[in-house]
Specification:
The chain has about 190 residues and is an alpha/beta fold. Helices cover about 35% and strands about 20% of the residues. It has a six-stranded mixed sheet with strand order 3-2-1-4-5-6, with helices on both faces. Helix 1 (about 25-40) runs antiparallel to helix 2. It is globular and about 55 Å long.
Length: about 190
Amino acid sequence: VDNVSYGKLPIDVTVALDVSYSVTGSVLERLRRAAGQFMHDLGRQDRLKLMLFNMRVTRIVDFTSDADAVDRAIRTATAGGGTALLDAISVALVSASTPDRRQLIVFFTDGNDSSSVTAPQTLTSVAQRTRGTLTFVMPALPHPIRRALATGSASPQSLRPLAPVLSAIAVETGGSVLPVDEYTDLT
């Protein structure tokens, strides 16, 4: 080692919003507000990229520090269609990134997948080779489901089969899964 210095690198944040049919109404509105606030909370040198996904993955805004552009893009988001969550994660992980910036990828999703072609094993392999940190913000299990788990009439795997996969790839990249309930202020 010739030289060691301490500095704080700027961050590139990819925000991926689930806009499938299962995320509509007040849930979609909460996600819009959270993503918009996220942009406003970043520093001057930080940038945000906005991705929307349902059965397709769409990069709406490339890395920018323009909060108004992100706000406009979020307001136009409409929900519909199936969910290709694993495909969206794969796209986010393999997207080009600048080596002199930290990378954070945040998925706001309900955690369900109905139409991905990416296998969980493939996604785990991709996550092991990425430099981005992957975090999921998703609903905690609703009260009736928690009751079913407590009584033994349901298993966590049958209710949310991707939860172990999402937890594993989040941990693999240094991220986490943040469970929220319907009363949590996502901002």
